[in-house]
């Protein structure tokens, strides 16, 4: 049989072993808690970051997300922040034909109106403010294309067509803040431009009249 001192030492060893085991178990529990907490934080961060990226994509470029949702037309030019003041003077527009900006208090009639003479920019821009699409053409446009476009306009409320000498393309389609140049009436983007911008989301004054304005 062992001496009392041996038994005491054995008991001390067992006690130390148990204490070490408890400490190791405690460390393991702490490590598990830390690991779970860290993984949860990473997961939350990833989910939150994903939500942020989705929201950021939806909110980016205003216009960009809104234009994409509205079906913006390939090759078009766009402008934002255009002024809408009524003025009784000639306006020097930064684009030709103008796609928005200050304009005459009187709008050009745009209820499917076909004009065979050039229009005053300031009246036509007011029609754009009401949600019209303005089709313009130069003498380089084929007569058959002008006839086709005129037929489309005549059947489309909130549109108008007129000759326009000072433009880069034979045919130009213009809405408020949007413009597309094409060479032929059968370009599929013509129909898309009409579908997108006749009373489209870009319209500053949706539902405003296209009759009762300037008729020639």
UniProtKB/TrEMBL annotation:
| Keyword match Membrane | yes
Listed A to Z, the keywords are: Membrane, Transmembrane, Transmembrane helix
Q: What is this protein called?
A: DUF3105 domain-containing protein
Regions of biased composition (Basic and acidic residues) lie at: 9-28
Q: Which domain of life is it from?
A: Bacteria
User: Which residue ranges does UniProt annotate as crossing the membrane?
Assistant: 33-54
Which parts of this chain are annotated as the region Disordered? 1-28
Query: What does UniProt list as this organism's lineage?
Result: Bacteria, Bacillati, Actinomycetota, Actinomycetes, Kitasatosporales
């Amino acid at each position: 049989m062992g001496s009392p001192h041996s038994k005491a030492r054995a008991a001390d060893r067992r006690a130390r072993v148990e204490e070490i085991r408890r400490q190791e178990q405690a460390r393991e529990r702490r490590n598990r808690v830390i690991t779970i907490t860290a993984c949860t934080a990473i997961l939350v961060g990833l989910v939150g970051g994903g939500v942020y990226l989705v929201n950021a994509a939806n909110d980016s470029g205003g216009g960009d997300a809104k234009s994409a949702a509205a079906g913006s037309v390939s090759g078009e030019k766009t402008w934002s922040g255009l002024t809408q003041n009524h003025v009784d003077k000639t306006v020097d527009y930064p684009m030709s034909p103008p796609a928005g900006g200050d304009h005459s208090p009187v709008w050009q009639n745009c209820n499917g109106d076909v004009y065979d003479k050039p229009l005053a920019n300031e009246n036509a821009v007011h029609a754009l403010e009401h949600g019209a699409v303005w089709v313009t053409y130069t003498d380089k446009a084929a007569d058959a294309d002008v006839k086709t476009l005129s037929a489309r306009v005549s059947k489309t409320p909130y549109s108008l067509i007129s000759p326009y000498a000072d433009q880069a393309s034979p045919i130009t389609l213009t809405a408020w803040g949007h413009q597309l140049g094409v060479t032929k009436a059968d370009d599929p983007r013509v129909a898309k431009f009409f579908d997108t911008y006749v009373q489209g989301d870009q319209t500053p004054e949706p539902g405003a009249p296209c009759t009762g304005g300037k008729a020639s």
